[in-house]
Each structure stands twice: as C-alpha cells, then as structure tokens.
Write a structure and sequence with these properties.
Elements (H helix, E strand, L loop, with lengths): L13 E2 L2 E2 L10 E7 L3 H5 L8 E7 L5 E4 L4
Antiparallel strand pairs: 1-2, 3-4, 4-5
Length: 72
C-alpha cells in the first residue's frame, strides 16, 4: 500500500443493523474505501472533484466490491 493510500484494515461491516456478507462468496470481512463517481460532463470540464463519492467494501476473500451511496 502506498504512502497516501486510504486503505483501512479489513473489518466486519454493519449496514442497517445487519452484518454485510459478500453477495458472491458469503464472506463477512471487507476492506473499506471511498470511490469517486465521475460523470462525463464534470470530467470534460476538469470538475471531477465536484462529483459524489461512494463507500465501497471490498471482500477480502474474493475481491467483490459492494457499493453504497451513504456512509453506514
């Protein structure tokens, strides 16, 4: 991982009071990160910073990514 990486330690994630499980393999340990949701218009005008972000949880078993618009 790089010096400026926003990767966090793998962990269990609770969403709306339920433990998140991977939709592919059923594993319940994820590495959280944020991802920018770029749009064509904002990218064209170099305004990527104005786009919304999503909260992502990457399964540590199979690497499937679960995406959420709001932080849980």
């Amino acid at each position: 991982m790089g010096l400026f990486s926003d990767d966090k330690e793998p962990q269990q994630v609770i969403i709306k009071g339920k433990r998140l499980k991977c939709a592919i393999c059923g594993h319940d340990i994820f590495r959280p990160r944020k991802a920018q949701l770029n749009t064509k218009a904002a990218s064209l005008m170099n305004l990527d910073w104005a786009n919304k972000s999503a909260h992502c949880y990457i399964c540590t078993n199979c690497s499937h990514i679960e995406w959420f618009m709001e932080e849980q």
